[in-house]
């Protein structure tokens, strides 16, 4: 949607509200709803402001210590929300509404807000462009759908909820037909918001589904991801249902967010494809750049795991035999590996199977780009591809087992420091410490069941 179209729609009474949204550390949309004529008269040219605590709170919006950029000592001031007009779109599930995303800058003109997820991804893409390359990505978000409203789920303490499907509906057309009205509404209304839906399918967990969207350039992919995730929750709520994107909502299969990733040269051709047609096996399919990219992704996976798996719950997903990778190997169409080489010809790409659906897409894609740049600049050699069951490979490097382990890798990583800078490393390290402190202080249902009477 162009600004001229927005003006016409506002003048014609079609649009009365404009949402200006920023993306927080958790990958959520925060922001303001503006009266559309006011937005056109004032915000479009001058932007708006938001409290800088939006990048310095926990998931429950509690103010917490340890952040250099935002604190009680600094007075919790504002930063500027600068509209990105390229993200302007209609919001079909909210009548009369348009939306656009904001980049963040300091009000004193000192520059961008370094810890902003959208700015973090932009900087990594700039580094990649220095090598004459452009990143493309597509995210596959799984979710579990419940027939309870969010309010009912809250009141029940998220216990004894009713999944939308009562058995495994992986690829089942009969099973997914039970919830097709909601899935169809999400697909069609996301298309109305400028996304390109590809398909919907059932998954293994009870009530679990996935809606896939067409790949695009990396920044647009991340933008589409957060619009979809927020919008899917809003649409489900309107239907009296609830969607969760938790990485591991119960003891069954977790919710993944596989990220398909590729690089293109300045002429638009694949920079990762070898001299053949991409139909061979193993490293022969890859160009020299492609081999270095995969080597860089493998070499940085542990160091950057905090960006791929940002929450305590994220690490519950990594279970052998669960299709969530534990072994840091790469293979051709091998779902037991962390990196799976898929596609043919110009569509050849690597699928990173590490992130869960709780991931912040800007940070995860930024980590992929930074890993690729590391592999290119360090001229890393790619290990042989893995065939067979990578879960059983005792010699393979492993994902960190917990958020605490991931934090150690992140803070001690020379590569993370050089790629993202000390401010970003410190900011997201503090985010992890805040989550760990909250978890360490909690008493879980598991502890109560085991110990209330019997200990």
UniProtKB/TrEMBL annotation:
Q: Which Pfam families match?
A: Gln-synt_C
Keywords recorded for this protein, A-Z = ATP-binding, Ligase, Nucleotide-binding
Q: Which residues are listed as membrane-spanning?
A: none
What are the residue boundaries of the GS beta-grasp domain, all occurrences included? 13-109
Query: Which SUPFAM superfamilies does the entry link to?
Result: Glutamine synthetase, N-terminal domain, Glutamine synthetase/guanido kinase
Domain GS catalytic intervals: 117-455
Q: Which superkingdom, per the lineage?
A: Bacteria
Q: Which InterPro entries match?
A: Gln_synt_N, Gln_synt_N_sf, Gln_synth/guanido_kin_cat_dom, Gln_synth_cat_dom
Family to which this protein belongs: Belongs to the glutamine synthetase family.
Descriptive protein name: Glutamine synthetase
Naturally occurring in which organism (per UniProt): Plantactinospora alkalitolerans
